[in-house]
Amino acid sequence: MATNLRDEEDDVSSDQKESSPSEGRSKPNVIIRKDGGLVAWSQVLGAFCLSFTTWGIVNSFGVYQTYYENDLLADATSFQISWIGSIQAFLLLFVGVLTGPLFDRGYLDILLVSGSFLTVFGLMMTSICTTYWQVMLAQGVCVGLGSGCLFVPSLAVVSSYFTSKRAIAIGITNGGSSIGGIILPIVFRRLQPRLGFGWATRIIAFITFALLCLATATMWSRSPAKPPRALFQPSAFKKLAYTLVTLGIFTGFIGLYIPIFYIQVYAIARGSTNVDYAFYLLSILNAGSFFGRLIPNAIADKTGAMNMLVISTTGAGILCLCWIRINDAAGLTVFAVFYGFFAGAYVSLIPPVLVGLTPDMNVIGTWMGMSMFVAAFGLLIGNPVAGSLVKIEEKRFVSGQGFAGSVIMLGALFMLLALITTVRKEKSWKV
Asked: Which residues have C-beta within 8 Å of that of residue 89, sequence separation ≥ 6?
């Protein structure tokens, strides 16, 4: 189980220091390094597993979207089916407004156990679903609630263990979502024709269960429990850079997942590839995302996370607009790799940017939770809007593609304004 370890003063050297056990618990002393070490990197391992089983599942929804449209929920429209994945992703972020302060108050154990149960239970229930509303409640609501309990705590724990290496540590953590997005669609695609939808989904649930057990066993909170505080701190939005970044995250998330949900459907409807290869496009996109979560984060440690976030958001928006003119297998493959790279960078750079804007590490969960709360509504509306714009039977996707690219570029504009504001205040380009 996760345990609370007392945080020592920030100026203690990185050689070693002992942490006192949380109040009321008897735990052995452990060595904690300020910017690395066995304990710190074990948190990265645990958070990697959480990322695999939260964002990794969200990033895999495209394979379910395609399967539902052609088989289990063939009577439902793309607009209706996209609500399942959108609500799952929405709840992942929306619940952050609750889990952030709960983490701050020392409830990491409860969040890990309850989130793990809801995620695995939701997947198991999805495996026996036969109707649209059953799938909505199991995969959309239950898995989404479970993921929401796990997302913000994983980032907050890792952030508290690192300083100069924070961006790369969070990049590795978020790499779990890319690995999940690579493996889970392939697992489903290979097993579903042989074992059926039910067992393919149950095997994914077993994989999820194993990884969540590992995460629960390895993750420790470095900070002691803190006194209750408000779920929101409205004063945070008085900081212009924080407000602009939050708006940028919101608008960016409206369009970011549209290619992830629809690239397979697009390839099959337009006849750009055969059905088999179309299913692998999602894994290819997530493979690009893996490198996008690592390389820009490593560079961000030298150049500043906000600089890299502006570049990544702009790159994703431009590629989304270029998608309109791509119709063949080779072009879609190149698009998937590069879009995955920039989209992965976008998602993984958000936490270090928010951490950098937070004035007090004791409220990092609350500030991050507030931003995720706002961003959640972007995820909620983006894919259903795209589902209403695309006309699969008529092979018309241009409206959805243009919508996705435009809102991502709007998000890049907000990020750029936040960057200019921060540079003027800090008198440095490394922000």
From this structure: 58, 61, 144, 257, 376, 379, 380
Rounded distance, CA 144 to CA 132, Å?
16
In sequence order, the 6+-apart residues with CB closer than 8 A to the CB of 144 are 87, 88, 89, 90, 91, 92, 95, 122
HSE-CB of 149 using CA atoms within 13 angstroms: 21
Query: One-letter amino acid identity for 63?
Result: V
Answer whether 213's CB lies under 8 Å from 150's CB. Answer: no
Ranked by mean pLDDT, which of 162-166, 276-280, 403-407 comes out on top?
403-407
Helices 78-94 and 61-70, packing angle to 10 deg:
150
pTM: 0.82
Question: What pLDDT score does 370 carry?
Answer: 84
Rg (CA), the chain: 21
CA distance 134 to 139: 8
Kindly state the average pLDDT of the residues 388-405.
89
Res. 8: pLDDT tops 80: no
